[in-house]
Amino acid sequence: PVPHGSGAPDDGPDEFDLLDTRLFADDRDGDVFRRLREDSPLFWNPGPGDEAGFWSLTRYADIEAVAKDATRFGNGEGTQIPSRRAEGNGPRQIHNMDAPDHGPMRRLLTSTFMPRAVEKLAGRVEEVTTALLDEALELGEFDFVKVISSRLPLLVFAPMLGVPTEDADLLLRWTNESSSEDPEYSAGPETAAKAREELFAYYAALSEERRGCPREDIVSTLVQSRFRDAPLTQDWLNPYYMVLTVAGNETTRNLLSGSVAVLGQRDLWPRLREGGPELLRTGIEEMVRWMSPVVHMRRTATTDVELHGRTVKAGEKVVLWFSSANRDERQFEAPEEFRLDRTPNRHLGFGAGPHFCLGAHLARMETRVFYEQLIARDIHVELLGEPDRLLSNWFRGIKRLPVRMTQG
Ligand code: HEM
What we know:
Structural class: alpha+beta
Bound molecules: protoporphyrin IX containing FE
Radius of gyration: 21 Å
Helix content: 40-55%
Distance between the termini: 61 Å
Strand content: 5-15%
Mean pLDDT: 92
Shape: globular
């Protein structure tokens, strides 16, 4: 194990620990990151128990540079803290892969997620949104997460994968249990391991079915793909299904919930309604910047690297706090203001470099269609309480958001 790092452990605010998920759930992380950006842009955080600590980068420019430098900073040793989560989810997920395997593996699906391919699915998103909004209007008062934001992304993405929509609830449960440390969602590592096993068994059966009778879906594409001059084995397929299942719903769920929350809190609905398609487009980018549904990704230095006058040693972990980059006052004018028309807005909400989010267009399109429908149908959303936040330093999640929806 790497010892306590090559930097002094006492060079930053010491009354917090970035592993403490309450910091994020209580919305105190913004203050901590502001101080780190100012005083300790390369901050050493001790690890949990006897596990090694990690470096933290909090400024936009540093995070963008490291995310784009796949030679000196690799993903192969896992991308989440604490590291056991990444290990549990397996090194063969594409966000945990490096060259030479990462590129070919990613390219198997790039055409599926290209803007043109994604736009063809807008009709499906409209259908799903219409049905969910009809149901919501019947209810009047309800939990936005339960009724809309946890279902919309999955009801769109399940058929893309090849999973029948009746099984979308299974995907939701496996996502929550395997990727969250929040005790409300997962009872711990055993629950997570069991969820993974169930997910793998489910997809193994589905893969077998599609090998015999391929259709137009992601499972069929992957089972027919070749990698390292051979068909993809189930050992490679399962982790791919895993990352897609989680990334395809948890993140967009939180983007939808978080954006509905901020629009209500800042009284921005009238402006969004009147602003037209261009304001919705820039507004969605601002929602991603603001919410930063993926809070961090981790890299490992492959060689000694000088940063801020210190040495990050080969093998040491470096955490990229995207949520902090997105509030960096060096990059964004008035970053604490939520501006629907913010331009330019080169946020890092989808990351940067070779691991840039594969599903970014899909997430944007789903969000766009959702808001287009709300506006077109003159549906009004009123917050009935504060968002109940997920205990996590990886996903900026919202577990419950009480709302009232009315039409006209
Ligand atoms: C990677 C954010 C939605 C699939 C990532 C990364 C971020 C991110 C920050 C890591 C980038 C890096 O390390 O530089 C988001 C956000 C989303 C979203 C904020 C929604 C608001 C989606 C969706 C899918 C998806 C809908 C798929 C259906 C992926 C995959 C990767 C990834 C496969 C790994 C790419 C690689 O390592 O090459 N995403 N994501 N994401 N995302 Fe997303």
